[in-house]
Design goal:
Chain B: InterPro entries: AAA+_ATPase, ABC_transporter-like_ATP-bd, ABC_transporter-like_CS, P-loop_NTPase. Chain B: GO terms for molecular function: ATP binding; ATP hydrolysis activity. The complex is a heterodimer of chains A (239) and B (293). Chain A is an all-alpha fold and 239 residues long. Chain A is built from ten helices and no strands. Chain A is globular, with a radius of gyration of 19 Å. In chain B, strand 4 and strand 5 form a beta hairpin. Chain B folds into two domains: 213 residues, 3-Layer(aba) Sandwich (Rossmann fold); 62 residues, Alpha-Beta Plaits. With 293 residues, chain B is of the alpha/beta class. Chain B is elongated and about 75 Å long. The chains are: A mainly alpha (239), B alpha/beta (293). At the A-B interface, helix 1 and helix 5 of A face helix 1 and helix 2 of B.
Chain lengths: 239, 293
């Protein structure tokens, strides 16, 4: 717990989280405004849900940037040295703290998107309004997708220890890999991190996968990346 | 006591550190000297437990680091691998480290005062000069009042007042029975600060001993208007005389300055110069490094 609190303090005493929060909220707001007002008629529930989905991918970059900053500014070694703990345990605490901050960012982003989008969709678009029974799972899916995406980004950052490499790897995992997998099996795409995220945020219509299945798939990817990052940290030098 | 036992570190085909063994004793400031690329930083990182040796081990208080990882109370480290985020204030940085080490937050103010950073503690580290960053690194290393202190080039960027402060700090720690290992390329500064030196070159320890071992006394330069009687007296006393034609001086080896003064007085020769020839630490160091390469 001491380690997680320390890593949380680290994240909250620099401006990275603040800038990403502002950028994520601004992009989510812009996205929902553009889709709700300028993309034609949205008269189906699925179309309206898609408009509220936001842009959780920016949170992928938050995870990557937050964790790689530890290596860029050489603060990862200091934490290990003063705590006397195994580097892998410190890395796990860092991922945990990043997820906690990521959860906050996901809540803010989703909140901004829903606060702006729901009234606009109700007043400017025809068709049925979104009900609480539809909004609550969607909001939960968006928050979960954003939080797990932060963990994927943070794990990639921990594995690669380089900001640019981690961001590029994130883009490859989320955008390039699904395209390649899609050439082999279309249904498998829904199990990729991006495919799962799309289901959770209502970005894909008529998916064969349920929200829980997609949540499990994305959680599996995030957990696997986190375990790899922790194991790698245990076996690599910090100097 | 910090002990390196047969440390070897390879990066691919390059052997950066080759079978290095030495000890850092309590109550002693040990200098860690070597030319650029000698492997000093890698050795320091291995001593801190941040870099794993391919073979060999590091003992801290007689226990291998793998069994007892260092923490703030046992090992204070200010090396390149340990930094501070430029966006945090010095106080925030130290408070975070104190939290990791479960040290009281009051200790942060103590080390800030010790490092002369109290007034600047609220400023972001990114606005600090190199000297202030060095002081912050030292403050972080001193947080747990550790048994052993490892410092990599701590005098870099310090002004003369800062260097004097550092020298006093290291001496005080040694007097309190703590062990200090300090790397430096400023040999004249090292000569003022350290009791013992470890010299590394090409990844190997080439000297471990006192400063005096590195700076052996040479002969004595003499100048006189009537050298003949004195040269004869020196030869009778077992000394060797080498003339320095260009300077009009003579280098006497095998006799020290007081003995030469006595000989000159008995031979009724007026001495115009009587200068012991000393080897500077720099000369001794370069001679040692030159011999290795």
């Amino acid at each position: 717990m001491t380690l997680i609190l320390g890593e949380l303090r680290k994240l909250l005493t620099i401006r990275t989280a603040l800038w990403f929060a502002l950028a994520s909220i601004a992009l989510a707001a812009l996205n929902v405004l553009l889709v709700s007002l300028a993309s034609g008629t949205l008269d189906e529930v699925a179309e309206k849900e898609e408009a509220l989905g936001g842009m959780p991918l920016l949170l992928l970059f938050f995870g990557a940037v937050a964790v790689t900053a530890e290596y860029r500014h050489r603060t990862a070694a200091s934490a290990v040295l003063v705590s006397g703990r195994d580097p892998g345990i410190v890395a796990a605490a860092r991922l945990g703290a990043t997820v906690v901050v990521g959860l906050g960012l996901a809540v803010l982003t989703t909140g901004a998107s829903f606060t702006l989008g729901v009234p606009i969709l109700a007043s400017h678009q025809p068709g049925p309004d979104l009900t609480a029974a539809q909004l609550i799972p969607l909001a939960g899916g968006c928050v979960l997708a954003g939080t797990l995406t932060v963990l994927v980004g943070a794990a990639l950052g921990g594995l690669l220890r380089n900001q640019i490499a981690a961001v590029v790897a994130g883009i490859v995992v989320y955008f390039v890999a699904p395209s390649l997998i899609g050439t082999i099996s279309t249904s498998a795409v829904d199990y990729t991190p991006f495919g799962s995220l799309q289901v959770l945020t209502g970005g894909v219509h008529g998916s064969a996968h349920s929200l829980p299945a997609s949540a499990l798939a994305l959680a599996g990817w995030a957990a696997a990346a986190a375990v790899l990052a922790v194991l790698a940290e245990r076996h690599r030098d910090l100097g | 006591m910090l002990t390196a036992e047969q440390l070897t570190k390879r990066y691919g085909r390059l052997t950066a550190v080759d079978d290095v063994s030495f000890g850092v004793r309590p109550g002693v400031v040990t200098g860690f000297l070597g030319p650029n690329g000698a492997g000093k930083t890698t050795i320091l990182a291995m001593l801190a437990g941040l870099v794993r040796p391919n073979s060999g081990r590091v003992l801290l208080g007689g226990t291998p680091l793998r069994e007892r990882p260092p923490e703030a109370r046992t090992l204070g480290v200010a090396i390149e691998a340990c930094g501070a985020h430029p966006g945090r204030s010095a106080r925030q940085h130290l408070r975070i480290l104190a939290g990791f080490a479960r040290l009281p937050q009051t200790r942060v103010e103590e080390v800030l005062a010790l490092a002369g950073l109290t007034e600047a503690a609220g400023r972001r580290v990114g606005t600090f000069s190199l000297g202030m960053r060095q002081r912050l690194g030292l403050a972080a290393a001193l947080l747990g009042d550790p048994e052993v202190l490892l410092l990599d080039e701590p005098a870099n960027g310090l002004d003369p007042e800062g260097i004097r402060w550092l020298r006093t700090l290291l001496r005080e720690r040694a007097e309190r029975g703590r062990a200090v290992l300090v790397s430096s390329h400023l040999l004249s500064e090292a000569a003022h600060t350290v009791d013992e030196v470890i010299v590394v070159s090409q990844g190997r320890v080439v000297h471990a001993g006192t400063i005096a071992d590195l700076t052996p006394a040479g002969g004595v330069w003499i100048r006189t208007g009537d050298p003949g009687p004195l040269i004869e007296a020196v030869a009778r006393a077992g000394g060797r005389v080498t003339p320095d034609r260009a300077g009009g001086r003579y280098l006497v080896e095998g006799l020290d300055a007081p003995a030469l003064a006595d000989l000159a007085r008995r031979a009724r020769v007026d001495l115009h110069e009587l200068t012991p020839q000393t080897t500077s630490l720099e000369d001794g160091f370069l001679k040692l490094i030159g011999r290795q390469s």
